[in-house]
Design brief:
five-stranded mixed sheet; signal; Coagulation Factor XIII, Chain A, domain 1; membrane; 4 helices; 2 domains; 300 residues; Solute carrier family 25 (Mitochondrial carrier protein) member 16; transmembrane; alpha+beta
Length: 300
């Protein structure tokens, strides 16, 4: 008759679970947000455009708070790259391929969508820099001249509403944004800027609060044309349904937050760079931990 040591089995399970918890930060990725309509340079590959894959397209946050405000004194690239690092999402960079994704009329009210995988409160801003060359580097000073208004309030800031978003249950925000009535361009850069507001900080006047002072910032850049119907738009080749699922019943609202019960993004295969540790490595790690446990019964 087989006898099972339930105490040892329980301890083994407990040990493995705790060990997995210790190792979890090495292969779990938490996200923040991305500009999905019009698709940004970092995200358009998810919709089938022939551009390099960027699995960190929801983490264009200037290198992080420490890098942005410590090393770079508050500066950031116009598309979310670290100021002192490679500007891979700006002209000349890996993800800036000159593909125009949308064409609009002058002064048109356009649909803009942002997907948050972590709601950090705060507010969105949208800006425009008109050029006729998608390979021309855009500056913050150009973008500052063309802030866009979100309807119906016609405010340049949209304050994020709703609850907490998290990896595995994405939150989409659909907005109506007004384009300028006097701008035509063959290759405008549309910038989304997300000023988060979930951290404690201190304003210049000494006021301290959640959302005060230096906060995380997230960016996205899309290439669009305005007032030029002859511009040739890039076309998606093959869509990846496990990366991006189009909504067929979207109801566009003015500044209204909408939620999805299920994520539109699924984990990629284990070979994907999205994971720092592959499933195979995790399995080997657990095997060795179990062997260690069985060889050291006195410890438990």
């Amino acid at each position: 008759m087989c006898h099972t040591d339930h105490t040892k089995s329980f301890n083994l399970v407990t040990f493995v679970v705790l060990a997995a918890g210790v190792w979890r930060p090495h292969f779990v990725v938490e996200g923040h947000g991305r500009l999905i309509e019009p698709p940004s340079r970092a995200t358009m590959w998810r919709q089938g455009y022939p551009t390099p894959e960027n699995y960190d397209d929801n983490q264009l946050f200037c290198g992080g708070v420490g890098v942005q405000y410590g090393e770079n004194k508050g500066k950031c690239g116009v598309c979310g790259d670290p100021w002192n690092g490679p500007r891979e999402h700006e002209a000349g960079g890996k993800y800036a391929n000159g593909i125009i994704v949308r064409s609009y009329q002058v002064g048109q009210v356009i649909d803009v969508s942002v997907e948050l995988t972590a709601n950090h409160k705060g507010y969105f801003e949208f800006r425009l820099c008109p050029t006729d060359n998608p390979f021309e580097r855009v500056t913050h000073s150009c973008l500052a001249k063309y802030p866009l208004k979100v309807l119906p309030e016609r405010d340049v800031k949209y304050y994020v509403q709703g609850g907490e978003g998290y990896y595995g249950a994405s939150q989409k925000i659909h907005l109506k944004v007004q384009l300028p009535r006097n701008v035509k361009c063959r290759a405008c850069l549309l910038q989304w800027k997300y000023n988060a507001g979930n951290s404690w900080g201190v304003d210049p006047d000494g006021t301290g609060c959640i959302g005060c002072g230096n906060q995380e910032q997230f960016y996205g850049c899309s290439d669009i044309a305005i007032g030029h119907s002859d511009v040739v738009l890039g076309k998606p080749a093959v869509k990846h349904p496990w990366l991006f699922q189009e909504e067929t019943d979207v109801e566009w609202h003015f500044g209204i937050v909408k939620y999805n019960n299920k994520t539109t993004e699924a984990p990629p295969p284990s070979s994907s760079p999205m994971f720092y540790t592959s499933n195979c490595c995790v399995a080997v790690m657990v095997f060795h931990l179990m062997a260690l446990f069985l060889s050291l019964p006195a410890m438990f």
